[in-house]
Amino acid sequence: MKNINTETIKKLIDENNVKELRDIFIKVPPIDLADCCNELEDIKDLVFLFRYVKSEYTADLFAELKQEKKEELINALSDGELATLLLKQANDDVTDFIEELPANVVSRVLKNVQKDKRNQINALLNYKEHTAGSIMTTEYLELLDTFNVDEAIQTIRKIGKEKETIFTLFIRDKERSLVGELGLDDLIFANSSDCLKDIMNKTVITVNVNTDQEEVAKTMKRYDLHAIPVLNDDQKLVGIITIDDALDVMEDEASEDFIQMGHVSPIENSYLQTGVIKLAFKSVPWLIILMVLGVFTSLILSNFQDTLALLPVLTVFIPLLMDAGGNAGNQSTTLIIRGLAIGEIKVKDYFKIVWKEFRVALLCALILAIACFSWLLIEMYIGIVNYPLEETLATLDSLGVFKARLMIALAVTITIFVDVIFAKILGVSLPIFVKLIKLDPALISSPFLTTIIDIITLVIYFVTSVYILHLVV
Amino acid sequence: MKNINTETIKKLIDENNVKELRDIFIKVPPIDLADCCNELEDIKDLVFLFRYVKSEYTADLFAELKQEKKEELINALSDGELATLLLKQANDDVTDFIEELPANVVSRVLKNVQKDKRNQINALLNYKEHTAGSIMTTEYLELLDTFNVDEAIQTIRKIGKEKETIFTLFIRDKERSLVGELGLDDLIFANSSDCLKDIMNKTVITVNVNTDQEEVAKTMKRYDLHAIPVLNDDQKLVGIITIDDALDVMEDEASEDFIQMGHVSPIENSYLQTGVIKLAFKSVPWLIILMVLGVFTSLILSNFQDTLALLPVLTVFIPLLMDAGGNAGNQSTTLIIRGLAIGEIKVKDYFKIVWKEFRVALLCALILAIACFSWLLIEMYIGIVNYPLEETLATLDSLGVFKARLMIALAVTITIFVDVIFAKILGVSLPIFVKLIKLDPALISSPFLTTIIDIITLVIYFVTSVYILHLVV
C-alpha cells in the first residue's frame, strides 16, 4: 500500500468510492496520507474526505496536514463537522495550530470545542512560547497511589484511550500531589494485588511549566524518558510532555543552532513555507552588522597603505591569510558551540579546554605552516599565480629573485603559524565567554570571531612583513 | 537526592557503607551516578561498587560510564565478576563499547559472556558502522499471531523483563515471518480472548539491516514509532531499534552536520574525550584544502595588480566585499543544507527554490546596497577610516574630493548589489548540485562556495571599478 499517491486519492474521491478510501485510511500511515492530501488542490476534495470517511481515521490525518490546509479546511467545514473533528484532536495539537490562525478563525474553533477541552486549550495558550507549558498536553493518566495493580489496569482500560500515552503512568496522593511514576511494563510485571505505592518509582524527574523546551528535551534524552511530568509553581502536576514532542523540539533546536551559524535568524517554518520578505528580513540584519564590523578591517588596511604601496605583492596574500585564520578559528568555535549546546562542555572546563586547544593549535599551525611554505614555493615556481616580482625586487634590491620569493613566502608562513594559534585559542574562548554572559554562543560568537581574527591577521602580517623584508616606510 | 556528588560516594566507599550506597543506587538515576563515578580517580573505588552493591543496580550504572572507565573496570574485575556484569547488559550496549576496546580486552569480554549472548553480539559486530544492523538490539519480544491476548500477557510476564522494550510487540506467523505489530497499550485495551491476528496492526513499517542509521531515525520520527523492526535480506526479523537509540543517532547526525559546516571532519567522541592529535588531524586537512583553493583568489588579485597600483584605496574594500558575498552565500547554503538534511527540501524542488531565492536575493541586495552606500559615505565623511584619497585624486584628477568619494562608494555598492544576488543563487544551487551527485552537501558545499564567491566578487569589483572610475590600465 506504500505506492499511494495524490492521483489515486483524487480518482477515488471523484468516483465517490468511500469504501476504498476507508480501506486506504486504515492501511496507510496518516503522515503519508497527509503528504498526498496536502497536494489536493480543490479544498472540496478534502472536505469530502473529512465528511464521508469515518472521523476515527480522519482525526490523525488532520493532525498531520500542513497549516494552510488546516486553515482552509476549517473554513470549509460546517460548525457541526468542525466540532466532531476537534473532539478527536489532542489538546496540544489544537494549541499548536491555533497559534498561527487568524483571530476570527481561532474564535470559531474555540466556539466549536467542548467546554472543558476549551478551558484546557485556553490554559495551554497562555504559556510562553518555547516553555514546557507551551508544548505539554493535559491529557495524561493519573492514578491514585492507594490503587492496586488490578484497579490501575481497570482504570486504564476505562479512560486510557483518550490519553496521550499510557506507557508512563503518573501516581498522585489524596492531596493531588505527584508522588511517583510507573511504566506500563512494570504494571504488567507486578502482581495484581500489589499496591501502586509499593511498586512505583518514587524519584520522579520533573520539569516546571516555565522550563525552556530545549532543557526539557535534554532532560528526557539524558534519562531515557518516554514522558516527563510538568509541574506548576505549586508543584502540582498540570501536564506531560511525550518523547515525540521532545524529538520535534530537539530537531527544531538543532536546526536553529545550525542556521544561526550561517548568520540567519531562526525561521519558524521550513524554507519552502516561509515567505520571500520574511526570509530576506531574517538574512539582511546580519549582513549589515557584518558589513559594519568590516570597518575594522578597512581601518587596519588603510593604516598599512604605505607598506602595501611599497610592496604591492603583499596584497595578493591577504585573502589567503584572512581565510586561514577565519577557518581555523571557526573550526574551534564550532566544536565548542556544539559541545555547549548538547551540554557536554561546561563553562567551568574553560582552562582545561584552552590548554587542550593550545596543543591542537600548535600541531595544526605547524603542519599548516609547512604545507603553506611548500605550497607557496610551488605556486611561485611553476607560476600559477603571476606575482609582480619586479616591484618586489626594486624594494628588496639586495636580494635575488629566489631569495625574495623565499622571504615573502616566509613572511606569509610565519603569519599563518602565529595566526592559527591565536585564532584557535580565541575560537574556544569566545563562545565560552558569550555563554558566561548568558548570551547565545551560536548567535554571537562567529561574526565577532571573524572580525577579531581579521584584525589580528592583518596586524601580524604587516608587522611580520615589515620586519622580515626590512621594509622601511 | 539530587545533590549527590563524587565526594559523597567516595566517602561512603571509604567507610565501607554498602547499605547507604545501595540506597543511593536505588534513588539516583544511573546517568547521574555515572557522572559522579566517572570522576572517581582510583579504579579500586569503582571495583568496590561493582563488587558489593547488588548487580541489579550496578548494571545500569555500567552502561552509562564513559568508555575509558568501562575499560579500566573490565581490566580490574575478575572473570567471574565480569561475567555477572555482562549478563545484565543489553546486547547492543555491549556491542557499542566492545567496538572501541583493544583486541585482547574484547576477547576477554567475549570469553565471559554466555554462549548464546556471545553469538548475538558477534552477529551485531559484523554489521557495517552507521547501519541499522550496527545499532539494533536482538532482545525484542516476538509473539505468535495465533496467541490470544491472555496468552500474550502471560508470555510477556514470563520473558518480557529481559527484553529491550515491551511497549511495542512484534507478531510472527509459524514460518517466522513478521506479520504485524501491536502496542502494549492496544493489548491492554483488547479483550482477553481476542486473537493477536485480529487486533494487530498489519502494515508494519520496517527497515533493512543495511539501512543508514540516519534514515532509520528519520523514519521513526516521521511515524512516531517507539521501536522499529529490522529485517534481513530474507525479510526475517533480526532485531529492533528503540526510540532512545534513534534519539542518539539524531543528535550525532545533527552534530556531524553542524561540525562539518565549521570545516571539521566528524569526531566520534565528545571534544573533551577526543585526543589532541586526533583533533588536529580532523582540522588540518580542511585548512590545507581551503588554503590551496585560495590560490584562485591570489590569481585574480595578481591579475588586477595594475588596477590596484593605480588606485590603492580599492584594496581597503576587498575584505568587506569578500565577506559580504561569502556571508550572503553562506546564509542561503545553510538554509538549504538543513532543509536537505531533515528531508524537507528535495532536489526536484530546485527551480522553485531558485526563483524564491532570486527574489529574496534581490530584496537583500537592495537593502544591503542602500545600507552600504550610506555607511561608506558616513565612514568617509567622519573619517573613521583614513582613506589615502590624495592618490585617488591624482588618478581621478577631474573629480573633486566629494565626487571621488561618491564614485568609489558607488563602485563598492554596485559590487555588493550584484555580488549578493550571485552569491545567494549560487548558495542554493551548490548544495543541491552536490546532493544530486550523491555527495554530502554539508561537507562539500561551503568551501567551494566561498572560493567561487571570492572569485566572482573580485572580478565584479575590478570590472565595476575600472568602468565607473574610468581607470585606464
What does this structure look like?
Two copies of one chain form a homodimer. Chain A has 473 residues and is mainly alpha-helical. Helices cover 66% and strands 6% of the residues of chain A. The radius of gyration of chain A is 32 Å and the shape is elongated. At the A-B interface, helix 12, helix 13, helix 16, helix 17 and helix 18 of A face helix 12, helix 13, helix 16, helix 17 and helix 18 of B.
Notable characteristics:
6% strand, mainly alpha, 473 residues, 3-stranded mixed sheet, homodimer
DSSP strand content of chain A = 5-15%
List segments of chain A where confidence is low: pLDDT < 50 over at least 5 consecutive residues: none
- Record field, number of beta strands of chain A: 6
Question: What average pLDDT do the residues of chain A reach?
Answer: 87
Distance between the termini of chain A: 79 Å
> What is the helical fraction of chain A, as a range of percent?
55-70%
- Side-by-side strand order of the widest sheet of chain A: 1-2-3
Oligomeric state: homodimer
User: How much is the radius of gyration of chain A in Å?
Assistant: 32 Å
- Main pleated-sheet profile of chain A: 3 strands, mixed
**Shape call of chain A:** elongated
Question: In terms of structural class, how would the helical and strand content of chain A be classed?
Answer: mainly alpha
Largest interface: A-B, 114 and 114 residues
Note the total helix count of chain A.
25
